[in-house]
Amino acid sequence: MATKAANAPASLPVSIDDVRAAAQRISGAVVRTPTLHSRTLSQLTGTNVYLKFENLQFTAAYKERGALNTLLQLDAEARAKGVIAASAGNHAQGLAYHATRLGIPSTIVMPKNTPIVKVTQTEGHGANVVLHGETFDAAYAHSRELEAERGFTFIHPFDDPRVIAGQGTATLELLEDVPGIDTLVVPIGGGGLISGASVVAKAQDRPIEVLGVQAELYPSMYNRVHHTEMPCAGDTLAEGIAVKYPGNVTAKIVEALVDDIVLVGERRLEEAVSLLLQIEKTVVEGAGAAGLAALLSEPERFKGKTVGTILCGGNIDTRLLANVLLRDLARSGRLARLRIRLQDRPGALFHVARIFHEQGVNIIEVYHQRVFTSLPAKGLVTDIECETRDRNHLDRLITALRRAQYEVSMVESA
User: pTM score, two decimals?
Assistant: First the structure.
């Protein structure tokens, strides 16, 4: 596939010099996160995969880069009055942390329904959190009102050339560490990260393909670039890139420099989060795993390439992470719930359990159902939750149960 022009048009709002200046500006104040080769993921996807661990920033996301680059360019008057943003995510924490560190007052407007953990984390970084409205749009509108009333400087999470230049520093480091990368796979929400990444990539002295990744439920930038009207709605694991309206500045850069955008489904996002924890021993949120999800979704597209992807954030709710891991175990056959019909007589459950023992399967939970069933009054349904080594092990268990004349069905996972 031919890549877009190697040099950014002069009319674009961000240049490679802007990114290099941002890198010097923020040097030493953000973590220069490692870029590591993943042998196992490379074998799994048929590519040569390099991961940029932006989830290891202090606030666990790359957003610090753009926020800090912007803060450092404010004049004394703007610093004294303070900054404001509307965000319930990583931008809020990154901006609050660095503003406090620099002695700049910060106000973050969040919707009233923002989870309390996000509110307390942002307050913990020194911000004044204002809860307003039931939606992000309402919070955003209120933040612009406060900006006008109190003379704050509004710092956009993505649609600002200073923010974009700051985000581009992650790719600058990535290509310094691994000069041989020929393909960048970058998550897209509002487009700040991929805008900076594409400016850096297209300024190199060799062609580098830049591919964006969006959740299928929120194809906003895809719609903008391809002139489609797919809906943007639903509960996605990749909430960090669940943006309904991409930026105008970012869209201009994406249209000029990004070669294509890949859409990924929820199952692939869940699989990617799970694999990164199991294989790389690193916690990544859904948006941060989107690059790997793209490699899993379209392996033929990336086969044989040297791919760099940015694990852009690690802020995932622990209960959600646990749910993702358990669902992945169920889909792989390592965790299952079997529904078995028994005769209601002494020893019935014992004989079933003996088969589990003979097959080396661990029983986790047993659920008896006598009342809420369509079976006759003396009928008995037992659901047994069990742990196996893999899908083949589970299949052998089911075969053994059926040979013993038991009616067995899988209680399907989501």
Answer: 0.89
